[in-house]
Design brief:
The complex is a heterodimer of chains A (about 160) and B (about 400). Chain A is α/β, with parallel strands linked by helices. Chain A has a domain at about 1-100: NADH:ubiquinone oxidoreductase Nqo5 subunit (Beta Polymerase, domain 2). Chain A contains 3 helices and 7 strands. Chain B has 2 domains: about 5-55, no CATH class; about 60-404, Cytochrome-c3 Hydrogenase, chain B, CATH 1.10.645. Chain B is about 45% helix and about 15% strand. Chain B is globular, with a radius of gyration of 24 Å. Classes of the chains: A alpha/beta (about 160), B alpha+beta (about 400). Chains A and B meet through strand 3 and helix 3 of A and helix 1, strand 6, strand 7, strand 8 and helix 14 of B.
């Protein structure tokens, strides 16, 4: 609870109006930030002397349930103080562009490539944004919800009772 | 594809000519211990540039997990770091338990610790003995590998499987360990120290081994941070970060153990950190057995824990629960959690978003070696090909985890 208050006070002071929500989900303080200021927020959190989130634990893509928006989720960590926070940002699925954070965290390189590979998020300024796990010729972004795992046209299998 | 860089003097006379040859290391090369491809640009025997290509055994685990009930995701986690799959299983159970808010009895947690530390030992045995093989010392590998076999016999006795274990359940364990399991664990604890000592004697202060590994593929602490190193590789670079201590899970706070730390971050340090961690794991197992509390082996989670068979046959409610669990029709709360455990090669994280349905809405695995393997091309720049092989095996990169 403490950490949530410290970070949200600092962020709201430095970026008024850019923090859309702040909440404690289970043991993690979670912040939703507007897309345009995401890079600045991360830069601030990394360089702030007290918070100093110097370690990017992981970065991944998500899609909202209405399938109209994509998001990127960052997990940050300050190891000496053991602070962990999660930051999220959402943007229109038809214009999935967001600045890269490889300049702040070199480890974001492959994580962003993976997010591009599976969700089609284009990270502006990334040094080598191409597919990483899937074949280069693939022309879809397979983790998006519009590509279901099983063929939905199957008639031999009724899923009225079980499954979505 | 070879590039010729030619330097001309003023009178257009060739004074130096440098030709890089391209070498495909992998995808299936016996020295890479897995499906890794590296396109190397070689200057003689020195690596000028390495371009890793990954994804050869990509199996879309994150997509698969979006259509599977929670209990059926455990076999997926087995197939990530298959050298220590019980740790992956336990990490996944703990993630779901965190989402459900379940309270796990101490006894089940202590059993989990024993299993996880055994898995860590087997993981480190594989990695360290393979470093020996890559330096040309086959003997240590052959001798220490029988102890990995003994660990797999313990797993086999508990869950019936050896490599892809699917061990335990969400909420705890399905039953008490039987007497044979405890006998096997006791024998292991009694006899393994001698085996590990023998392995240490063969390699740790061996002149040839040290000449090959000291200063081979080093990385500084700052760079290791930047590249997201965790686990033994980060500790070898001098950072004492261990999830078991920083964010204790499964009662790790009850045990006393030290975190070995290196100084150079080179192959030798990575090897030594793992050697010492095996001794620490042994001590944790001994403490867990000595302090083993009484109590139940599983949490009170009727929605996830199969009722006893007699109840299923004689009790309507138990039958309904059995059916619901097997079909994966139990409800979970809406929410999102991140849980991490100290895997064999680093911080293994699970980021789970649930929308209340029978399957996760989104499940992201933080796979440690996917994250730190990107440092490889920088680490091998300017070193010999044979050292690059050694660097890769000392980083403990597991193909299944790398490609998910």
């Amino acid at each position: 609870m403490e950490l949530l208050e410290i970070v949200s006070a600092k962020l709201n002071e430095r970026f008024p109006g850019e923090i859309e929500s702040a909440a404690l989900l289970y043991d993690y303080p979670v912040f939703t930030v507007k897309k345009d200021s995401m890079h600045d927020v991360l830069k601030f959190l990394k360089e702030d002397e007290e918070l100093n989130f110097h370690f990017l634990t992981t970065l991944c893509g998500v899609q909202t349930a209405d399938e109209k928006q994509l998001g990127v989720v960052y997990h940050l960590h300050n190891m000496p103080k053991n602070y962990r926070i999660r930051l999220k940002t959402f943007f229109d699925i038809n214009k999935p562009e967001i600045p890269t954070v490889t300049d702040l965290y070199p480890t974001a390189n492959w994580m962003e490539r993976e997010t591009y590979d599976f969700f089609g998020v284009r990270f502006k300024g990334h040094p080598n944004l191409k597919r990483i796990l899937n074949v280069d010729e693939m022309d879809i972004f397979p983790m998006r919800k519009e590509y279901p795992l099983e063929d939905q046209a199957r008639t031999d299998k009724k899923d009225d009772m079980f499954g979505r | 594809m070879s590039k010729i860089e030619t330097v001309y003097s003023i009178n257009q006379e060739v004074i130096e000519e440098k030709e890089y040859s391209t070498l495909n290391l992998g995808p299936t090369h016996p020295a890479t211990h897995g499906i890794f491809q590296n396109v190397l640009k070689m200057d003689g025997e020195i690596i000028h540039e390495a371009t890793p290509t990954i994804g050869y055994i990509h199996r879309a685990f994150e997509k698969l997990a979006e259509r599977r009930p929670y209990a059926q995701i455990t076999p997926i986690t087995d197939r990530m770091n298959y050298c220590s799959s019980p740790i992956n299983n336990m990490g996944w159970y703990m993630t779901v338990e965190k989402l459900l808010g379940a309270k796990i009895p101490k006894r089940a947690e202590y059993h989990r610790v024993i299993i996880m530390e055994l898995a860590r030992i087997s993981d480190h045995i594989i990695c360290n003995s393979v470093i020996g093989v890559d330096t040309g010392a086959m003997t240590g590998f052959l001798y220490i590998f029988q102890w990995r076999e003994k660990i797999y016999e313990i797993f086999e006795e508990i869950c019936g499987a050896r490599l892809t274990t699917n061990i335990g359940r969400i909420g705890g364990f399905d039953k008490e360990f039987n007497k044979k399991t405890w006998d096997l664990i006791d024998t292991f604890l009694k006899e393994f120290p001698a085996g590990l000592k023998e392995f240490s004697n063969l390699l740790e202060r061996n002149k040839i081994f040290m000449d090959r590994t000291v200063n081979c593929g080093p990385i500084t602490a700052e760079k290791a941070f930047g590249y997201g190193f965790t686990g033994p590789n980060l500790r070898a670079a001098g950072i004492d970060y261990d999830v078991r201590v920083m964010n204790p899970y499964s009662s790790y706070e009850d045990f006393t153990f030290t975190i070995p730390v290196g100084t150079q971050g080179d192959t030798y340090d990575r090897f030594m950190v793992r050697q010492h961690e095996m001794w620490q794991s042994l001590s944790i197992i001994e403490q867990a057995i000595k302090k083993m509390p009484e109590g139940a082996m599983h949490a009170d989670l009727p929605d996830f824990f199969l009722p006893p068979k007699e109840a299923v046959y004689n009790n309507m409610e138990a039958l309904i629960y059995h059916f619901k669990i097997v079909m994966g029709e139990t409800d979970v709360p809406v929410g999102e959690v991140y849980h991490c455990v100290e895997g064999g090669n680093g911080e293994l994280g699970f980021y789970l978003i649930s929308d209340g349905g029978r399957t996760p809405y989104r499940l992201h695995f933080r796979r440690p070696c996917f994250i730190y393997y990107q440092a490889y091309s920088e680490m091998v720049k300017g070193i010999m090909l044979s050292d690059a092989i050694l660097t890769m095996s000392s980083m403990n990169v597991i193909a299944g985890e790398l490609d998910s």
